[in-house]
Here is the input.
Amino acid sequence: MGLRDRRGGGGGGHHRFQMRTKVMSIGDDSWIEDENGSRIYKANGKALHLRKKFILEDANGNDLAEIQERVLSVRDKMVIERDSGSATVHKALIGIRERYQIDVDGGPDLKAHGNFVDHEYEIERDGDTVATVSKRWFRVRDTYGIEIADGEDDVLLLAVAVCIDAMAHD
Here is the structure.
């Protein structure tokens, strides 16, 4: 199944996470918390690299995904690499509005559209919303939320949000 490994459970629920905008600062580590404020994942920014690089870890420090900018490319591109496969996030070339295409190896591709600078966008697969990113849910200025549909791959979608944030806020 590649990167689309699904979580168990049903019931049409969702998972909510909160991220700090400084999670995208190279060289900084930042925790991704669940809706109860528990530290679930850590985005570890690698400072001594020529290109943007992050490691997404679980709360115990286990590497879950490596996120790295691809240089020498016609357009901005970042690659998410995991044991279960990879995905490439890149800016779409067509249209007046900024959009992102997420090419998932071994699974259906994703698209992201909305206001990326203000952290107000959706990630879709085949026209269905699989994640929503919004700052409106928080009063804290440097925090935004990610709501992921039940049964979706949290790590993949959080990694996609990290990529989009890094590319949209150079």
About this structure: The first helix runs from residue 154 to 168. DSSP finds one helix and twelve strands in the chain. The helical segments are 154-168.
